[in-house]
Amino acid sequence: MRAVLRFLTLGLIPMMIVSMVSAMAEEAAERKARSIEILRSEGVKYIDHLPKIETVDESLRRTEEEVVRRTLALAIVAVKAESDDYSLGQELIAQFGAEGYFTPHEEAFMKDRAPTEHERIQFVWCYEAVHVLLWAMGIYDEIGSLGVITDVPVLAETLRDLGPDGLRARASLRSQAELLDAADLIYRYHWAVVDARINGRAAPTSLDPGVVYERHYTLNWLIGYSDQPWDDISTDT
Fold first, then answer.
1. Residue 52, Cβ density class (10 Å: 0-12 exposed, 13-18 middle, ≥19 buried)
2. What is the pLDDT of residue 134?
3. CB neighbours of 166 closer than 8 A, spacing ≥ 6?
4. By CB neighbour count within 10 A (0-12 exposed, 13-18 middle, 19+ buried), where does 2 fall?
């Protein structure tokens, strides 16, 4: 009897694997189809053969604490970049208890008393990443338009009002499926932006290239794309 049960169990395992693979393929295909339908409805160019992205089971699920720390670090970096005020940056680290939250690249910038204008401009874009993370944690109800940069005063007020404790208390990371939906869609929007640039056309009027890039970068981190650390996130299209 035991031999028979073992034989039947071994026979079921391949069937279960095939079933799981089939379900994952269907999930990815349906997600891609929904994204393409959105692009089509907005008149944004797309290609059918752009690959599908990861599924819920294949992707990395960030913890809320990881997302909170990333949010605080990026916000502080962006303020320092915008103000060009080294002392203010150090005060914010102490105020928000953010020591140790920074990546190597960010840490070097925070310690630099005289960053270049180019470096400052690059880090000011971190406000867009903060916007996405506030949405991912449920602080913002909507992820918002891709054609307009985030409202920095509102963003700053939100973080001031919440503080680190309030941010942790309010943080409720959206479902992995919802994060993947956003990641798949931005992947295809970003392709449209890159395609326009390569072919000497203006990007669709509904898309700000900088906002699209930052959102793609942040969402790729949220889903653990290629298991890359923040400083090395790629935004393949």
1. middle
2. 98
3. none
4. exposed
- Three-state DSSP state, 161: helix
3-state percent breakdown (helix, strand, coil) of the chain, nearest 5: 70, 0, 30
Instruction: With CA atoms as reference, report the closest residue to 53 among 222, 206, 192.
Output: 222
Angle value at C-alpha 92, between 89 and 98, nearest 5 degrees: 105
Tens of each residue's pLDDT in the chain, 237 residues: 444 444 445 665 565 455 556 778 899 999 999 999 999 999 999 999 999 999 999 999 999 999 999 999 999 999 999 999 999 999 999 999 999 999 999 999 999 999 999 999 999 999 999 999 999 999 999 999 999 999 999 999 999 999 999 999 999 999 999 999 999 999 999 999 999 999 999 999 999 999 999 999 999 999 999 999 999 999 999
Long-range contacts at 221-228 (CB < 8 A, ≥ 24 apart): 221/62, 221/70, 222/62, 222/67, 222/132, 222/133, 222/136, 222/179, 222/183, 223/53, 223/54, 223/59, 223/60, 223/176, 223/179, 223/180, 223/183, 224/59, 224/60, 224/61, 224/62, 225/54, 225/183, 227/60
Give the position of tokens 């996405």. 132
Q: Where are the domains of the chain?
A: 26-60+174-232, 64-170
